[in-house]
Structures are given as structure tokens and as C-alpha cells.
Amino acid sequence: MPQPRVTVLHDGVLPPGMASIEALAEVRTATADDLRPLLADTDVLLAWDFLTPALDGIDVDSTALRWIHTASAGVDNVLTPGVAASTVTVTNSRGVFDQAIAEYVLGVVLMYAKDLHGTWSRQRDRQWEHRETESLHGRRVVVVGVGPIGRAIARLLTAVGMQVAGVGRTARSGDVDFGEIAASTGLVERVGSADFVVLAAPLTEQTRGLVDRDVLAAMAPTARLVNVGRGELVVEPDLVAALADGVIAGAALDVFEREPLPVDSPLWGHPSVLVSPHMSADVVGWRDELAALFTDNLHRWSTGQPLRNVVDKTLGYVRTPDEQREPT
To answer: Disulfide check for 199: which of 35, 91, 93, 229 has CB 3.0–4.6 Å away?
Structure first.
């Protein structure tokens, strides 16, 4: 059989291990500016540049495209209306980022509880000021998003003695990591007792703007928000107002409505806000893992085996085993 034709969409940096991909396929590379004409005879698109809007407005059913793989857990940038309505299979890089993001969340939770940012600031000013800090043991966390990333977060925070509750698309009981999972439609009722609210949900039509003025107002004034999902999960002006008015105590934000975060955003200068540049998942070796996952899937594609991480395009993410048993 002829080798599949693969186009690698990149932003100037190619995946490591290109030779392994080239051994399995006829490979071309493209940036967003020159992608469109190549899709006419592309079987597989590797969206290595997973933040690009290059697929917007493209009728993929009029191309040769049969499979899109994105080098990210979120698929919102590749799952355009045209792709969602098409016969094209979409896969993601689920599983690569779970532990790294969980460690990031634990790090920022510790930062707030132990006032490490305050200690660092006082050290710079050569200021000796004894303070009491918070214990993590028994503190309550609501994790919004109960996929692999949310579960890794839950396991790590549970291991340090925190009480973790889950919020997902549908309510269910007997979950191995969360026990009871509440539906995201009832988020307002769930956040009031939380010391930390952690967002790790995919961006879908149901989760866009999920954390708004009402949810923030329902949080305790001592609570902190941590967002490692997508910036659009939060109504950013509502968050800015809540922080300015002391509605919540702080926020650790790795993702934003606009990236890079504009230099005039008030989030940069807020003393209780941590801004990180969409890097919570990016530990040493992450690109190698992403490339290895795609290469494995390309081998499966070439040999007729089932692909890993097939996205349910009606939901916008890979179904969990529990969701596989739910009616659509």
C-alpha cells in the first residue's frame, strides 16, 4: 500500500524525531500561511502548532484529509465547525501532560498556603517578618474537569491530605478518584465551601464562560482560583472585577482569553495573581513524548489498528470509560 501523506503544521519549530515519522509516511511541512493548498492531497494532518487557527473556514470534506492529530490535550483550535461536521477523525495528545500539570497545581497551592510569594518579596526587601501560614491538610478543593488531567490533580492533592471534590459534564457516584462527581451545571452550589477551585476542563460550548460573576461571587473570600484548562473557561472581566473587589483572595492563571496576555492587562500587576505563559504542562522532554505518541498512532493508522485518543467530536474531548457507557 502507498504510504500516507502527512502534513506537519508548525510555527517554525518541527517535532523531534522527524525521521521516525518520515519512515512511515510521505511528509510535508507547512505553516499556517501555506497550509490550505497542501490539504488537497493530505491524508493526515499533524497540528504541531496546536494554537493556530489555520483550519478556520476550511471545508475539510472537500480535501483528502482523513485524520487530524493535535499536539495538545485541548482540541478547540482544530475542532472547527467544518471539522466537527466532517467525517475526519480527530485525535489528541491525552495522557502526556497529566502529571506535569498536577505538579504545577500542587506547586501553586503550596505557594498560596505557605505564602512563598510573600516570603520571596520580603527577602528582596531584606524584611524579617514572622507570619503564620496555612496547612493543606483538610483544605477543600473543587476540581472542574474529571478527565485524566483532573484525576492526576485529584490524586496528588489527596496525597497531601486535601479533600477533593469533582465537577464534570454529568453527575455520577462511586468514582475511584472523586467519589461523588457533581454536574457542572450546579457549579455555583459547589464552590462555596472550597479553599481552591481548579479548572482542568476542556473548552466546549458547555464550558465556555463557565466561571462567571455568579460563580466567583459564590466562592469564599479566602478562596483562590487556579486555571490550567483554557482561558475561555473564565469570563476574564468578571475575574478582574472579583479580584479588584476582594471577592476572592487570588488566582493562579496559566491560560488566558488572549495569549500572550496583553501588557495592559490588570492581571499582570495584581499582588495575589500568578501569571504563567501557558507552560504548566511543559516539562523537560514533553516534545519528545508528543512526537512519540503521534508516531505510534501513525503506525497504528498505517497498519489498520485502532487509533489512540479518538475525540468524540460532539463533546469536544475523548470519552472516559464511564462516559462510554452513558447514552449520547
So the answer is: 229
